[in-house]
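Why this split exists: single-chain examples teach little about how molecules sit against one another. For that reason, every record in the complexes split bundles all components of an assembly together and asks for one structure covering all of them. Below is a record exactly as it appears in the raw files.
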Amino acid sequence: MKLANISKKVHKWLMLFIGVQFVIWSVTGAYMVFFDIDYIHGDSLVVTHQNTIKPENLTFTSSALYKRFPNAKKLSVDLLIDREIYRFSNNGQKVTLDARTGELLSPINKSLASAIAKHAYTGNDDIVSTELITENPPFELSARHLPVWQINFDHFSSPSLYVSANTGEVVTKRHSFWRLFDWMFRFHIMEYGGESDVSNWLLFIISTLALIAALSGLVLTYSRVVRPFIFPQKKRKSSAKKTPRKIKLSTDKQS
Amino acid sequence: MMKWVRKIHKWGSLLIGLQVLIWVISGLTFNVIDHEKASGNTYRQKMIAKQPVPSGVNLLSVEKILQSYPDTIKLTQTTLLSTPYYLLTHKKGLYRHLENNYHLVNATNGQLTQVDEKFAADIAKASYSGPGNIASVTLLTPPIDDFLIQKNPTWQINFSDELETSVYVEQGSGRLVGHSNSDKRFADFFFMLHFMDYGSAGNFNSIQIMLFAFITLWLTLSGLIWTVHMLSKGKYNLK
């Protein structure tokens, strides 16, 4: 079988160079597949409270609000932990106001940010640190969320909740398993830092070689596993004519 | 030991070889396709208000609205087709695509508004810049093939263009869920193959892919050992 011989050479040599990437693909792929994606996204870290607004608590009326902020736009009413609040945009700036007293809550202070995070957090773990991030967000945080409070909890998966300093909303969350997932993903798509164009080309070249390696591997699977299984008689007959079966088998093993 | 390594590699390849090929082909596809096109937004345009939206002070007061709808978790002011509305949340999902429950109230006259067939079609039209006309409007209940993450009833508005564009509008809120077209469906098909999501669960945490991933680990690690073994035995020589 000529095709099988060529495939054997191609598979052997290609895998010498790109086999490691196959290992990386399978390890990173397995990680991403085995961990539930909702767990990875930290959905179980936070509670979605369903408490309802009590209209009688809006003692600082919306008309008073418009008097004080004539340019207020996109008004919303929400609950911040247990108090009714107004949120609106005022000349492009997001503002949060206590709907009972009209007290300005934004920018959210440290103790309120911690309380919001604690209220949203599923567990009972203590807060390790609460830090305000106004610029240079860490990799895991999108710049559009700034300014934001990062509240870190005492848990082996190092959960962080991010609370917007303007709106008091939990805008995103992270934990070790998600951070690791991001790394796995980057290795999976071969984004080893640097220009994205370069890594795209790298992925293209390696994937194309991988395609050839996989195809040659499949030819070998057919000639080495499937064919002998389907035609055991034929093989025995043909090999019996030329060489004893035992020798044939031992050459197989060496490759 | 090498005997077992080879056995594992051979039988592993028999079990999952074809899927490995599918993974490589679909992976290569993601690498070469035009992601701009595959986003399905070829004919999507920003919805621009045709007339100025009345400022908040001229709208019905939020207190009044909340008194009429007592079980409200959150009230937000939104604009649909240049008309201001209050969107009242009665059941809140962690994300907006998760199961939720809304009331939509006209913010000028207080009328409870349903996003019906015509309203949904108008929203879809406002977001559409292509040459086609509306061919059909259908209310879908999840799962929705083009947007598997969307868990709420959604209007599907189909346009008669060469890309077979479909626009999706959430029934409860009038929110534009997104656009899809044949380019996106082409990419989605390869994602389905790559994730082995043959049951259309919309994720890659199915039993079948876990099983295959497990066997793949054995396949690649046995291959690695085999290669290292051949290297150490001097089997890699250019004759």
